[in-house]
Amino acid sequence: MEKACPTPEPFRTRAGTVFFITGLFLLNFLARFILAPLMPFLVEELHITLAQAGSLFLLISSGFAFSQFSSGFVSSRLSHRKALILSGAAVGIALLGLGVARSLWAIRLSLVVLGLAAGLHIPSALATITAMVRHQDWGKALGVHSSAPTLGLVLGPLMVAALVGWVSWRSLIMLLGVLSLLACICFLAFGKGGDFPGDAPRPSLLNQIIRLPSFWFILVLFVMSLGGSVGLFTVLPLYLIAEQGMDKTFANTVLGLAQISGFLAAFGGGWFADRAGPKPAMAALLVAGGAANILLGVLSGGWLLMALFVQPALVGSFFPGAFSALSRIVPPNLRSVTASVVIPVAFLTGVGLFPALYGYLGQTRSFGLGLVLAGCFMLLGPLFAFALKF
After folding, report:
1. Burial code of 5-30, b = ≥16 C-beta within 10 A, e = fewer?
2. Cα separation, 296 vs 307, whole angstroms
3. Which residues contact 134 (CB under 8 A, 6 or more apart)?
4. What is the dihedral sign for C-alpha 326, 332, 334, 336?
5. Which of 41, 71, 82, 244 sits at 20 to 30 Å (Cα–Cα) from 385?
6. Quick check: 144 and 19 in contact, CB under 8 A?
7. Would you tell me how many other CB atoms lie within 10 Å of the CB of residue 292?
8. pTM here?
9. pLDDT tens digits along 248-287
10. Each residue of 133-171: pLDDT tens digit?
11. Please, what sign has the CA dihedral across residues 15, 18, 24, 27?
12. How far is 349 from 219, CA to CA, in rounded Å?
């Protein structure tokens, strides 16, 4: 297949397609993280322990990391457009399977498939957007696409708070599956872009990047941030309900509203990184986010609610500067390969192992201890941020 990319155009010309792909990403993210606000209902129905509940996210993250790392092999044989459609359709089917699964093992299998399906989206989406939008408008286009996760953190808990009283958690999961399938059909019929193949990762390039100390430093920084933000979000509903005694609906409503600050701060994080520089920005935000996580683990009542609204803004501002640093630690020809390694590994650790650890501590000690330990780990961020070499 001839690897012919389209001619880049201004963002306003391609805005419709960018928003279309962003909609697919939003459903992709909701599919993986709607389980967090639904977890108290799963624990109650399936009679699973808190440690088992936390380990479910490790299954999703394992499939997601493997799929994202190997996505180049899929897109190189199909195309980025077909990979996007395959990802969305497989996510929808996995959600339908999860909705009808009755045993814990069937649920675990569905979650692994869900992670495998979801991991194909991001590499092909980024390749499609950067190929069809001119370089001067990448910030706008990628900013729109990157808003999907933070918006998903807002919508997920609010959807659960609003609908679970009317429908079961299984019906809500299956509704997301149907929406994902419908979105893929619409993209197949009306969506444009991505009609070119990707590149499979080559061992020679991987060998170059793993020899760089800065590669390992940026990997640790991503693990810190993901573990203290998205990874922590996966267990916050259980923490608020099981240890803080909140009502399920109230906890999910508060959690959803609190994430709005993270959604808004994601846009300001890029401005802060441009003004202060990526290294100082990452160092300051990790320290502030770590302190907020420690407060979440030790406060209660009104002070806890205040910390809930402040914490997402601090951890959500980290990623613009981090992605800027990620692109500057290697030459341009190694950027995509570096991202294809750093992001899956950091995701597997921060959003897979961290929730499993939180769940184990919640069962044996307390969730609050897990939040404090994660916060202390983030306080070490400046050591790694200032050690980076661009």
Report:
1. eeebeebeebeebbebbbbbbbbbbb
2. 6
3. 8, 9, 10, 11
4. positive
5. 71
6. yes
7. 22
8. 0.78
9. 888 888 888 888 887 777 667 766 777 787 889 889 999 9
10. 776 676 667 667 777 888 888 888 888 888 877 888 888
11. negative
12. 10
Backbone angles phi, psi at 49, to 5 degrees: -80, 165
Query: Is the distance from CB of 128 to CB of 81 less than 8 angstroms?
Result: yes
Tokens 């899929």 belong to: 74
Largest CA distance in the chain: 61
Report percent pLDDT > 70 for the chain.
92
Using the predicted structure, report yes or no on whether residue 2 has a pLDDT greater than 50: no
Q: Kindly report the number of other CB atoms within 10 A of residue 143's CB atom.
A: 16
- DSSP 8-state code for residue 9: B
DSSP letters of 295-333?
HHHH--HHHHHHHHHHHHHHHHTHHHHHHHHHHHSS-GG
Q: How far is 259 from 307, CA to CA, in rounded Å?
A: 12
